[in-house]
Amino acid sequence: MGTFKLLSDADLLRIDQASRALLWEVGVEVHDERAMDYYEGAGAHVDRGKCMVRVPDYVITDTLKKCSSSVRLYNRKDPEPLVIGGDDVYFGTVGIATNVLDINTDQYRSVLTQDLVDIIQLSDVLERPHYILVPATPTDVPSAVVDLVETKALLMNTSKHFITEAQNAENCRRAIEMAALVAGGLDKLAAKPFMTMLVTLTSPLHFRQDVADLIIETAKVGLPLFIESGPMAGGTGPATMAGNLICANAEILNAFVLAKAVNPEVPLVYASWARLLDMRAATCSHGGPEFAMLRVGTSQLAKYYGLPCGGGSVLADTKSIDVQLGMEKMGTGLLPALAGTNMCTGMGLFADENAISLETLVIDWEITGWIERVLRGIEVTKETCDLAVFKEVGPGGDFVRCAHTRENYKRESFLPHIMDRGYLALDKDPLAKEMRKRAKSMYPKLMREYKAPEISADIVRQMDEIIAR
Questions:
Q1: 90, 273, 318, 430: which sits with the fewest CB atoms below 10 Å from its CB?
Q2: pLDDT above 60 (res 464)
Q3: pLDDT bracket for residue 433 (50, 70, 90)
């Protein structure tokens, strides 16, 4: 749809102009020699002594000309890819949580590898998420290889397209090597990539070496890059939302310049977690209206440039699975979806992005189904406006027994899986069917449908050897 807008065309032009001026007049601090070489080759002004890069206006314009309006994200089961672009909306998980609310004990604890596997498998069963961004960080493996363990868990437990992370150039190359093993070769992986690399930028205007590593190594192979910037208004970004949008936009454009300098054909997704620093709680807010508004703003900017877009969505600050969770997740999910954010990324997470649970993922499956029904809108056609059914029923009749009702109600209605509907007279216990309890009871039923991807023991052995190097 992409019908919900907060910025006018004049607003978008002003933010674009300010972003370009910021990259030229202030510049970006870059701590990577290879990256500075690529920037210099693209036409940027590089001060190696100060580690500063200033990007002229024409370089940004040239970079945007090399970008595609859509990106195809493949999977290992369905031959049809997700086409990311236009106003199509897809929902995905997000991470990277280090805490899990245990479904059995109802207590918070550190995420273990098995928790990550459980979340990925549930994500694979549900029709939403449509793609999986690594949703949790295991604490029971060495930190030096935790990113590779995550990538292996994704390869082993889902056939859906996934977004993974890497800590440095070496681990990025290893992750790509593991994915190529499963794909049957690097050429096959590059032709139909089922893996995207996550790039998280640092605000304000600071380009880390690991960020440069990920962009360069992934772009050389030609795999998609999900490049996100998340300045916190009042903290790592200006306190005004307009200033925060300028900061995020400039940082993303700067990263795009590097990616396209490495490989003009690399697929790129413009993504953002631009957000608000709560001055009272000294925490970053993901569940407030500003987060959803900033997502609308960054999506409008991406569409202004004709780019596929994504970012944080369906998120909550609350530490409990309660009314606040539903309120925040619906608000931060619905507004970006109405704005046409292509990749709404956040299913499963809560507690200010610090925790995840199986129940919240099931709940988010329900919430995103509700949102998808809104996005379908109201179909007004010759058939849906046909008066024949009125003539059949007549004044004072009912439509319950009509064939017209049987033929249309499932298609027209959102039919919930865990939301509570029914007569109060038949069930007066307000605690018996709380949303979390219904989600918990649904989980084992859903998992009966899970089937692991087929991966040979030899490939598993080779992946373990790559991680153990």
A1: 430
A2: yes
A3: confident
Both structure tokens of 364: 């988010």
Closest by Cα among 90, 89, 81, 195 to 148: 195
- The whole-angstrom separation of Cα 305 and Cα 27 is 21
Among residues 97, 104, 168, which one has the least CA distance to residue 133? 97
> Is residue 124 within 8 Å of 131, Cβ to Cβ?
no
Which residues face 195 on adjacent strands?
162
Buried b (16+ CB within 10 A) or exposed e, 54-64: bbeeebbebbe
pLDDT score at 466 = 98
| Count of C-beta atoms within a 10 Å radius of residue 80 | 8
Give the pLDDT confidence of 136-183 residue by residue, as tens digits: 999 999 999 999 999 999 999 999 999 999 999 999 999 999 999 999
Q: Determine the residue type at 232.
A: M
Gap between the Cα atoms of 113 and 120, Å rounded = 11
Write down the residue that tokens 């790509």 correspond to: 176
| pTM summary value | 0.96
**pLDDT at residue 430, rounded to an integer:** 67
Measured distance CA(247)–CA(238) in Å, rounded: 8
Q: What is the DSSP string of 128-139?
A: --SBEE--B--S
- Quick check: 111 and 356 in contact, CB under 8 A? yes
Cβ–Cβ under 8 Å, residues 1 and 87: yes
Confidence bin at 96 (pLDDT 50/70/90): confident
Q: Is the pLDDT at 1 greater than 60, yes or no?
A: no
Token pair, residue 420, equals 């509570």
Helix (H, G, I), strand (E, B) or coil at 80: coil
DSSP string, 171-223: HHHHHHHHHHHHHTSHHHHHHS--EEEEEE-BTTTEE-HHHHHHHHHHHHHT-
**Ranges 116-120, 129-133, 419-423, 436-440: which has the least confidence:** 419-423
State how far the alpha carbon of 302 is from the alpha carbons of 9, 161, 255, in Å: 13, 22, 14
Residue bearing tokens 């998120």: 315
Tokens of 291: 């987060």
For residue 50, the tally of other CB atoms under 10 A from its CB is 10
Give, for 54, the enclosing helix (H) or strand (E): strand 52-54
Q: How confident is the model at residue 2 (pLDDT cuts 50, 70, 90)?
A: low
